[in-house]
Amino acid sequence: MGDYKLIVFHKVALRLSFSKAAHELHISQPAVTRHIKQLETFYNQKLFDRNGNSIQLTIAGNVLLNYTKQIFIIYDSLNFEMNALLQKKAGNLKLAASTTVAQYILPKALSKFHQKFPEVKITMNSQNTEKVENAILNNVAELGFIEGKIKNREIAYHPFFKDEIVLVVSKNNPLVRVQEITLQQLKDIPLLLREQGSGTLQVIREALQKQKMSLDELTVEMQLGSSESIKAYLENNEETGAFLSIHSVLKELKAGDLFVVDVKNLSISRNFYFITQQGYHSPLANVFLEFLNHYFPENLLSF
Prior knowledge:
Strands 3, 4, 5, 6, 7, 8, 9, 10, 11 and 12 form a 10-stranded mixed beta sheet that branches. A two-stranded antiparallel sheet has the order 1-2. β1 (48-51) and β2 form a beta hairpin. The protein is 44% helix and 26% strand. The protein has helices at 4-15, 18-25, 29-43, 59-86, 99-105, 107-116, 129-137, 183-186, 199-210, 227-235, 250-255, 283-295; strands at residues 48-51, 54-57, 91-98, 120-127, 143-146, 155-170, 180-181, 190-194, 219-224, 241-245, 258-263, 268-277. α1 (4-15) crosses α3 (29-43), α1 packs across α4 (59-86) and α4 packs across α12 (283-295). It starts with a helix and ends in an 8-residue tail after the last helix.
């Protein structure tokens, strides 16, 4: 559905390659070139600057890309809504989700999903990443959502949501007045970390390793089993910091109860994943995943 020329442009703009766009669209490269030239003629502006074998978006090209992103999000939403009218879905779907995803990412989506598909009964258990993977392997849950990959060969991992881990402190912590600290200074700060088996802890470990540091070099005051318990601890402690998902502290940051402290040369970004056993997930699970793609169009990665 939609203007095919815009579909072709969108593919070229995302890949910055006429040949890759042609391959993905199953058309010839001259056909791609023809569609782009027709758009450039229509808008009377160049959309790409060509430099040898490479291309870059012009200012007009960037404007058009921003609009095509919005257009295709609307198209996807329209298709989902129209298909939902035709499909009466019913049944039971068992989910397992790691703590951050279960508390801060999925609840609103689950409420909207229930309004649209009231005959689908969903149960969701909240556990750390390691236990979510075990639930999938033992058929306790069909669809899992985790914060990190343990890379079990029996599990299929699909990135679905972007996240960032940040260092936060309470509003009374002296570090609030400091714009940035070094990795060496980080070693001296009493820290709260998530428990063993947590996806958050795994991602922090990997980020430190890239800077040739280990968790053992940090001053770990305590390890706690949830983001909520860590935030409650911080509220009553003026010296301690904690690494938490940015999604878990949005309300506190907005209220001014917690503050982010930047650590020089330490950037901790990650994807959340949905996981299934290799080779299969049910039509009902597919409906739920399609709904998430509709509900989180700006944050979701491509399934």
